[in-house]
Amino acid sequence: MPRFQAACTLMLAGALALGGCKLVKTEDEQRQAAAGAFNPDKLVADIWDAKVVPYLDGRAGAFQEVSALTATDLSAAAEKYGHKEKQGNAPWTFAARIDGVIVGEETKSRAAYVDVDVDGDSKADVRVSIGPAIRGTALRDSLKFVNFNEFKNQIEWAQYGKSFNTYVNGALLEKLPREGLTGKKIKATGAYPLPAKGQLPQFVPATLTVGG
């Protein structure tokens, strides 16, 4: 076989061999990739006690005050108690404290809730989510120190919002009793989006006690 042909044959064989190779990450590279992966549950857990609860404690007003101010002066209520993400069409979301009596309950569905009277007239003023499924992203949307631009895309932002609900359910709500709640006292700190006219505010708690 001529020398040139032999050299070409070897080069072709080498190219084919390389083409069949599969690059495998080392264990260190795999660990680094895992460490850098987006983990919204961990992001929420890392800030819950240090930032989320203290922020809501400091920002929240009594529900009656917040609700009354949103009805008469939305701009003032937003400045004092609210937050609204600049991107998208998120509603104003308000931090509030609830201190009242449960006057109704729905605990059979996964999106369970209790209706709460806060002004003593035996009528529901606010609906408090008690999980395990929680609609919306009120807790995320009430926080001024997180924003959409910190995330890669809308999917990550949505997952982050859902992780707040997952965390509060596991840390707080799944421990609640599911029967005989009507008539019991309830205290909570959390957030709710501005409701449509005539609708009960949908409140998501970050802290909550029932009875006692």
UniProtKB/TrEMBL annotation:
<dbReference type="Pfam" id="PF10054">
    <property type="entry name" value="DUF2291"/>
</dbReference>
<dbReference type="InterPro" id="IPR014582">
    <property type="entry name" value="UCP033535_lipo"/>
</dbReference>
<protein>
    <recommendedName>
        <fullName>Lipoprotein</fullName>
    </recommendedName>
</protein>
<dbReference type="InterPro" id="IPR036215">
    <property type="entry name" value="TM0957-like_sf"/>
</dbReference>
